[in-house]
From TrEMBL:
<dbReference type="InterPro" id="IPR003439">
    <property type="entry name" value="ABC_transporter-like_ATP-bd"/>
</dbReference>
<keyword id="KW-0813">Transport</keyword>
<dbReference type="GO" id="GO:0016887">
    <property type="term" value="F:ATP hydrolysis activity"/>
</dbReference>
<dbReference type="InterPro" id="IPR027417">
    <property type="entry name" value="P-loop_NTPase"/>
</dbReference>
<keyword id="KW-0067">ATP-binding</keyword>
<dbReference type="Pfam" id="PF00005">
    <property type="entry name" value="ABC_tran"/>
</dbReference>
<keyword id="KW-1278">Translocase</keyword>
<dbReference type="InterPro" id="IPR017871">
    <property type="entry name" value="ABC_transporter-like_CS"/>
</dbReference>
<feature type="domain" description="ABC transporter">
    <location>
        <begin position="2"/>
        <end position="235"/>
    </location>
</feature>
<keyword id="KW-0547">Nucleotide-binding</keyword>
<dbReference type="InterPro" id="IPR003593">
    <property type="entry name" value="AAA+_ATPase"/>
</dbReference>
<protein>
    <submittedName>
        <fullName>Hemin or iron-siderophore ABC transporter,ATP-binding subunit</fullName>
    </submittedName>
</protein>
<dbReference type="GO" id="GO:0005524">
    <property type="term" value="F:ATP binding"/>
</dbReference>
């Protein structure tokens, strides 16, 4: 189980996350949603043990990520970051193999090749194994990053906008893999901006707004028009059928662009603006 108890996080002298509490059970997918700047990625970094807490506590299984040795932590949780860019040239298979490093010199290491091959196959990246990851598209790099996470084989898995760079086919396949991880007992936390994807693939939702929990609970409880419209500052309609929850924002009929951006400027005004 993942337990987040009254967690606060401060960066640059400013509180980014304040008094956040929730629990996530094995076998479930918990979605973190909320507008830009709500604190989702910052919270995920703290859950991963990558940034310190200003207050509260986090428990991953029986471990405190803030005080767990790096290798032990890497055997407990794996993380797919939102930014899957790389700074050095590696072959795709080498990148996926990095997910097995926490298990080096353990009895699990003998299964490395089998696990790496399975992760590549699951993410549709087997054909890329001899390619330099630097030359891949954003969507391909994201799938390789997901393969690395799958190869790490941890009981707790964090995903930060995992499908943002993918086309519709691989978005659905990747979310299906996330769902399958939970079905096999993993505790999964996933940051998503696509509310319909969150409704379809998550068991529960933690909705953040300005660093605090605006709503938390089962998808059907959090996904209602009043809550989402207030959090996102935009009219959102939520409809529910016997098989699905659908979220539809009101379409903008007219923007609020200043005339200075679209109307022709007189030569006088042009000269004045040019100095």
């Amino acid at each position: 189980m993942l337990i987040v108890d009254n967690v606060s996080i401060a960066l640059g002298g400013r509180n980014i996350v304040e008094n956040v509490s929730f629990k996530a059970k094995p076998g479930t997918v918990t979605g973190l949603i909320g507008p830009n700047g709500a604190g989702k990625s910052t919270l995920l970094s703290a859950l991963s043990g990558d940034i310190p807490l200003a207050g509260g506590s986090i428990t991953l299984g029986q471990k405190d990520p803030q005080h767990t040795p790096v290798r032990e932590l890497a055997r407990t949780r794996s993380v797919m970051l939102q930014d899957v860019g790389v700074a050095f040239s590696f072959l795709v298979r080498d990148v996926v193999e990095m997910g097995r490093r926490p298990w080096a010199r353990t009895d699990q290491a003998e299964f490395d090749d089998e696990i790496i091959d399975a992760a590549l196959e699951a993410t549709g990246t087997t054909h890329l194994i001899d390619r330099d990851i630097m030359v891949l598209s954003g969507g391909e790099r994201a799938r390789v990053a997901m393969a690395r996470v799958l190869a790490q084989r941890t009981p707790i898995v964090f995903f930060d906008e995992p499908t943002a760079a993918m086309d519709i086919r691989y978005q659905e396949q990747s979310l299906g893999l996330i769902r399958e991880l939970a079905a096999h007992g993993a505790t999964v936390i996933v940051v998503l901006h696509d509310l319909n994807a969150a409704a379809a693939y998550c068991d529960s939702i933690v909705c953040l707004d300005s660093g605090s929990v605006a709503a938390a609970g089962p998808v059907a409880e959090v996904f209602n028009s009043k809550i989402l419209s207030k959090v996102y500052g935009w009219p959102i309609e939520v409809s529910t059928t016997s098989s699905a929850i659908h979220v539809a924002p009101q379409r903008a009929r007219k923007g609020t662009m200043s005339a200075a951006l679209i109307a022709p400027l007189s030569s006088k005004n042009t000269h004045s603006h040019m100095g």
